[in-house]
Design goal:
Blueprint lengths: L7 E2 L11 H33 L16 H16 L3 E5 L3 E6 L4 E8 L17 E3 L2 E3 L3 H21 L9 E8 L7 H7 L7 E4 L2 E2 L3 E4 L1 E10 L3 H4 L5 E9 L9 E9 L6 H8 L9 E7 L2 E7 L14 H13 L6 H12 L11 E2 L3 E2 L1 E10 L3 H8 L25 E10 L5 H12 L5 E8 L2 E2 L5 H14 L7 E3 L11 E3 L2 E2 L13 E3 H20 L3
Parallel strand pairs: 4-7, 4-8, 8-23, 9-24, 10-22
Antiparallel strand pairs: 1-22, 2-3, 3-7, 5-6, 6-25, 10-21, 11-19, 11-20, 12-13, 12-18, 13-15, 14-15, 16-17, 18-19
Length: 545
């Protein structure tokens, strides 16, 4: 989900997007029946969100017909079967995406949702896949990002089918829900889909916030690598600490909440492991990771605990990787090979505005750049194999495996430390220029730079039909005639559409919970979104061409 982050109102308003004449009368009748319909289907909508959220649809190893693993495949097929039972025309496109369509007409309206989720992480009060209801909220990974809103869109289509199409109303456009399984890790699902399907006339993704988002920052990933000296290179007259393991983070688009290092200490004058453990302990505090250290046999194990957050607003999290690197460099100093380079990355990773990498830029349309130090792995005997594992399955949203051969542990000559960073950059900036700045900032360090995936910014004009019509619906529903389009730092499926925006599900002032422990979506917001989406779909489908 592209939620709060740096949210900026676009200066321009949007002209009226209402229907007129007979079309307006038909819409008034539809709206008059909608509340009754919502009441009749309220429990079914709740149970549908719960059922979908109980599927652990984290991307996994591919299998035949399951390019994103069995969990994602199960969730996609659940959507298709549920839509089919509603009477929609449905398809499964080779496990990449499913769709469900109603209506008729040469042109079509797209609603793009996704069922894949980021790993659940730790710190939950309620089971992350229990979909339990407490205080009117459904708690689950994916409840608001994006399973709940996808179900809301599905039921919005059902409302239009029941209250308009079944009554003989003939739309000017079809409407189709397209649900992907790879939004969190690279958009391969919708790329596959639109390589085989034409672009819709208009579309929206229920994966950000209201009023609507018509500008999204660019998303760029770069990788740093640092060669650590082997035993012969590091030999000296004093004691030294040798990294045996260093890893942290689960995905490059999530602020890492945990990182761990294992070290061996050797040489004349070396302090005891117990003494080093005491030096490293840090109880944490505001904006600071908690550091614990313990002795296991002849090794020192150091862990950092931070707070997860979405990479579009990394300042809301506490980066455990940056915290761990800082603790190691501070406590061990020159006894730790490449400690100055580790300290550089710790400082740059902690400064989420990009200033540590020399890329602190901003513009009036979409605000400042942000950077997230999302992944770090020490790769030993087989560096190429470990590096490939670190980047598996991800344009711009690389996923780190829970365990990969050759990655995470080292102790051999020429071990390499890899770190992946995710940047959200303003609509007037470019990844090429930012890359040049990063290279300049790295001068004098041992870090090597590699520019990786880039998703350019996305912007749809304020006066476009999709912006005018959706904004009009929101203004009417919210009673806020001054509501304006927004620009955000996240990335949604809207950017794969020529005429697409993000529309909900968060309302102004609501906290962004995507990718965080105790993610939830309120039942009242579920019903409210179904109403808004149903009205929006009606207006888009029945608008005169």
């Amino acid at each position: 989900m592209a939620g709060e982050g740096e949210v900026r109102e676009n200066a321009g308003g949007a002209g009226h997007g209402r229907l007129a004449g007979e079309d307006a009368a038909g819409e008034a009748h539809f709206v008059a029946e909608l509340d009754r319909w919502l009441g009749e289907h309220r429990q079914a909508m709740i149970e549908a969100v719960q059922a979908l959220c109980r599927i652990r649809s984290v991307q996994d190893e591919p299998a035949p017909g399951q390019p994103f693993g069995p969990g994602v495949a199960e969730a996609l097929e659940w959507i298709r079967r549920h839509a089919e039972a509603m009477g929609f025309r449905t398809r499964n496109l080779d496990g990449y995406a499913v769709d469900a369509e109603i209506g008729e007409g040469e042109e079509w309206i797209a609603v793009l949702g996704h069922v894949d989720v980021v790993p659940e992480g730790t710190g939950w009060t309620y089971p992350p896949y229990g979909a339990e209801i407490h205080d009117g909220r459904i708690y689950a990974r994916g409840a608001v990002d994006d399973k709940g809103p996808t179900v809301a869109a599905l039921y919005a289509l059902k409302a239009v089918a029941d209250l308009a199409l079944a009554q003989g109303r003939r739309p000017a456009r079809r409407a189709r829900l397209v649900v992907g399984g790879n939004e969190e890790s690279g958009f391969e699902c919708v790329k596959y889909y639109f390589a085989r399907e034409p672009q819709p006339a208009l579309g929206f993704s229920p994966d950000a916030m209201f009023p609507l988002v018509n500008a999204e920052k660019g998303m760029w990933t770069f990788r740093l690598s640092l060669e650590l000296p082997g035993e012969a290179q590091a030999a000296g007259t004093g004691w030294r600490a040798r990294l045996l393991r260093l890893e942290g983070g689960t995905r490059v688009n999530v602020v890492p909440e945990h990182a761990v290092a294992e070290l061996a200490v050797e040489g004349p004058g070396a302090p005891s492991l117990d003494e080093l453990a005491r030096r490293l302990q840090d109880g944490g505090g505001p904006g600071r990771a908690r550091i614990t250290a313990r002795v296991e046999g002849e090794r020192l194990v150091v862990e950092a605990r931070g707070a997860a957050a979405h990479a579009m607003h990394p300042e809301k999290g506490i980066n455990a990787v940056a915290g761990l690197l800082n603790a190691l460099a501070r406590a061990l100093g020159p006894a730790l090979p490449r400690s100055s380079d580790l300290a550089f990355l710790a400082g740059a990773g902690a400064r989420t505005d990009g200033s540590g990498f020399g890329i602190a830029v901003a513009d009036q349309v979409s605000g400042p750049l942000t950077v997230n130090l999302g992944l770090i792995r020490l790769v030993g005997e087989h560096p190429l194999q470990g590096a490939a594992s670190l980047a598996a399955g991800a344009p711009g949203e690389a996923a780190a495996p829970e365990a990969s051969r050759g990655a995470g542990r080292a102790g051999t000559a020429g071990a390499i430390l890899y770190a992946d960073c995710n940047v959200r950059y303003p609509v007037t900036a470019s990844a090429q220029d930012l890359a040049r700045r990063v290279v300049a900032a790295l001068a004098g360090t041992g870090w090597r730079f590699e520019s990786r995936e880039d998703m350019p910014p996305h912007h749809v004009p304020d006066d476009s039909e999709i912006v005018r019509r959706l904004l009009a619906v929101y203004r009417e529903e919210a009673g806020d005639p001054a509501a304006r389009p927004l620009a955000i730092g996240g990335g949604t499926y809207a950017r794969v559409l020529r005429n697409g925006v993000a529309f909900g599900p968060l309302f102004p002032g609501q906290r962004e919970l995507a990718h965080e422990p105790d993610e939830y979506w309120s039942i009242d917001d579920l019903v409210r979104c179904v109403r808004i989406y149903a009205r929006a779909l009606y207006r888009l489908m029945f608008a005169p061409r």
